[in-house]
Amino acid sequence: MKNISQSVPLVDYQEKASGKTVFVNDIQMDEMHYAKTVRSEKAHALIKNIIIPALPDGYFTVDAADIPGKNFVKIIGEDWPIFAKRTVNHIGEPIMLVVGKDKAVLEEIKRAIKIEYEELTPVFDFQSSAVHKHYSKGDFESLLEFPHRLIEHTYETGYQEQAYIEPQGLIAGLENDRKIKLVGSFQCPFYVKNAVQSALGWEPKQVRVIQAAVGGAFGGKEEFPSLMACQLAVAVNKIRKPIKMIYEREEDMLVTTKRHPSRIKLSGIVGANNRLLGIKAQIGLDGGAYVGLSSVVLARSMLAVSGAYAIPNLDVTGDVYVTNTVPTGAFRGFGAPQMIFAIEMFMNHLAEELKIPAYEFRMAHLAKQGDLTSTGGVFRDPIILNELIEKVAKVSGYHEKHQDYQANNRFKGIGMSCFFHGCGFTGSGESTHIKAQVKLRKDKSDQVFILVAAVDMGQGARTTLKKIVYDTLQIPASQVTFERPDTDDVPDSGPTVASRTVMIVGGLLARAAKKLRDQWVHNKETTVIEKYQQPDFIKWDEDSMQGDAYPAYSWGVNVVETEVDPVTYAVKVMGIWSAYDLGKAIDERIILGQADGGIAQGVAYGYLEVMRHESGMIKQRNLTDYIIPTSADVAPTQTFLVENPFAYGPYGAKGAGELTLVGGAPAVALAIEQAIKRQIHKIPATPEYIMELLNHETN
Amino acid sequence: MKPIKFSLNGEEVELDLNPSLRLLDVLRDHFHLTGSKEGCGEGECGACAVLLDGHIINSCCFPLGNINGHSLVTIEGYSKTKRYKALEEAFSEEGGMQCGFCTPGMIIAAESLLNKNPHPTEDAIRIGISGNLCRCTGYNMIVKAVKRASEKGAGLW
Amino acid sequence: MVKQIIPANYREALSLLNEEPYQIIAGGTDLMIQKRNTAGLPPKFEKNLLYLFNLKELKVVIKEPSQIRIGSMTSLEDLLDHPNTPLLLKQVIAEMASPAVRNVATLSGNIGNASPAGDSLVPLYLLDAVVVLESIGGIRRLPIEEVIVGPRKTVIRANELIREIIIPDQDFTKVQWTKVGGRRADAISKVSFAGTVMIKNQTIQDFRITLGAVYQTVIRNRSIEASIIGQTVSALKAEAETILAQYEPLIRPIDDQRSNKDYRKQVALNMIKDFIMKI
Questions:
Q1: CA–CA separation, A476 and A467 (whole Å)
Q2: Res A148 pLDDT > 90
Q3: I need a surface site. Which of A325, A427, A635, C259 has the fewest CB within 10 A?
Q4: CB A36 to CB C38 under 8 A?
Q5: Is 1.10.940.10 the CATH classification of the domain at A24-121+163-255?
Q6: Is CATH 3.40.190.10 what the domain over B82-152 is classified as, yes or no?
Q7: Are A34 and A245 in contact (CB under 8 A)?
Q8: Model-level pTM?
Q9: What angle, 0 to 180 degrees and rounded to 10, lies between the N-to-C axes of helices B140-152 and A588-607?
Q10: What fold is seen in the domain B4-77?
Q11: Nearest-CA residue of chain B relative to C40?
Q12: A291 to each of A77, A121, A134, A229, A593, how far by Cα in Å?
């Protein structure tokens, strides 16, 4: 293949289109039982008593008392119970499973179970910080000693629900007396395996985890499946029969992890010549009832504080607040979308106060190669933001339209966002936590097997990783096999998260393939293992949050044009134009498809998707009430990829999966701002919010 | 209760099941035709879509009792046709698939549309698939795929 | 165990209904979801079920000299395709739900369901639709506003079914439909507006407004409309605020997971004003 970016068909397109792809709910096993979850009805309460009716033969309840190992889902800390025991901390918190063969009987048993609660006072606001972090760059406080202008704004973002079309589910069963097999829809087979080992107190060789086809994930199947897996594993261990647990949509939306709502206060100090000298940020994320992954989400949020800009002085504080609501977790972007919304709006609002054009103000502060990052690392690689901006501005007619819409009151607006995304795990995560390994095995017939834990959840990993291997080996595609990961067969190449799959796992596979090519002997069985090695130049201190937070950065620009209906305040997105630098596309069509999907989610996060809770109860719990875009909602979209190869990525590739979601919300919010001539501080910028803003003279 | 009779993927079948059962459950649990999926259970996402006399319906909110005397085609039956092949190729060439969960429903929606309107405009395509939710693709490549199938598959519809 | 019958013909359906109460199932798109159980289990229907969906006698649309008669099992999509369906009704149906739902849903199902947010009811009230109810005992013809008396409450008797919906032919100078939903397809209305006007010689001969999703039932006020008839267009525009003030107390929306009452009310009034000012 001359140019790896040249698109190839997805390896599994025929299976997908004809409905033959096997998703977890399509799997049947002999003697299959079902599990249904009994959940808390209270946001915060003590469980005083549980009355369980007499159970018919073959029906069981499974709860904390049945856990042989630890009653915590192994994610990071020991904070998230597998089953609630004495206290419940959010509506929908799992208390027990009811297991049996007949679903009608399970429903009856569930109805008959009576739980007596002693209610406690729930907390819903930002009171109780469970994670507190701080870092600084330069010396923000010292700026206050000189003549300056201090401008402050607070921004808020709401929940976002991943709304993968395939709800969550798993099947588990015993392979033999002391080995359990779990099959399911998840992003991280080894997260699931490690969690189950901890819950059962079993050895690694006793737990086998196999990925079923995944019908969309977007981070929602990163850590949450571990909770379901632990529950199922404990149940299987108890009844010694296979069990299937599939969430239906309402249950899924009520209890699974979502994007952290945030409140971000930004204080900017502007000095002479309208130079933004420093930002003080106070970031608050709503972690829900259990911290889970939230400390890492917070870190990414904090690290993104200066967005696409180089700001010399920073004082950044972040907190994860625990509230009596559904635990929040990973969602494509992982803390960055909240921060990028805030910083992009802030740059615009600063310019407004300074009475200078926002575009010029932002251009004057764009990061360049050689600049320090927010944590005092260095942007070592070329940054081609200016090229991206020029391209998008030209095709969208941004400047002409912006001027026109600014000068006239026709309820039209156009907004631009510039942003970046740190590729891979933060700092030394790859070398200290993940320690990824990949394996290539060539059998006697010269068929090469890719053995990694990377999950294809629609982002095309099965196709792109295979491409890297057969292209490097210069063999036909059919000579390479990449099955869905089975932990019995594959090494832990790390979770399918953080936009690391092509850059890190693909990078390791490229090196392994090169080694295999160099030692290729026909019809000889050969195995090559490649282990991750952190490049020397990545220096990161976790505690002080100083150094190179990421090995590489991808960059993007989005322009969104909107019209607002002055009668109904409804927003119509008229056009979307984007340009991205993700190093090099391993497959252009796959990347462009990811970009389409990402910007649709990002823009919808900004104006369409509403999820709120009332006293801890999620109000939008189905796909009728939680509004995601239909085909009739999506605007004409144009995307450009500009190559900027990264020396340490396979074929120059950097991270791509999350970048395309991160900038959509501020772009659409800025467009709406211009259309209604009011400042926006909250997303989603719904018609209801727009009406509120317009009902006030100015803001 | 008389048995319910209908044609399923071209074959006549007779069922003596509870007529209020969801057609989706009958297809998946009784006939083991798992190509139609449950994405929402409330007629919103279209992942359960099948063809009733050539027209798209959501099988998750269609009672078995209403199928009496009709012709039903699921993705399993439809995927054996030439029209399907044209759509499959077009979806691949235009990148209209990512995770694949919504895809059978999308293809059913495309067939239902093209059956009625063999040369749809882009707007008509957007309306034709407006009842099928996709979270991966942002729809643009799916719309292009349907357009491409209608053009390259001229004469099929 | 409930009794479930698929009647062989219309007469059998009437006769069965007269013997004991049945829940009538038309397309099922509302009922199957309202009564849904966990996946794999039949819905939680408590009454006997009568499946009328396949009664061919009820799947007809008949154009008569001054009206259109729509059989109660006609699908919304078939209505959308029919040349004689009034334009306003077509505009409304085109924005309802999705193709899959429209292929199966019926006006009679919408009427039986009597949802405050039911889109199709809004044009039916405006067009003076008449609902034909039949039982073994005979036929009743009632204006739609007398059939629906509250959220999910109708005057349809236990032994009656909806046979057809009659819409008289009428001409309008201008027809306006605005649906305000969460998105551009597949949305339940937050508030909806239908307005028609008939003008001759700059004078208003006929003026109608109906509003959906802002009260327990569709709002239509014939006395406000009557007061406008005979005015000139410019006089009407001049007193737009007075008209709004008359509609204002009738609009009593609620807060729910889709929107809030302030938004619904203000937008409803905006739409009335916009309609008047653009005549």
A1: 10
A2: no
A3: A635
A4: yes
A5: no
A6: no
A7: yes
A8: 0.97
A9: 130
A10: Ubiquitin-like (UB roll) (3.10.20)
A11: B25
A12: 8, 19, 18, 19, 33
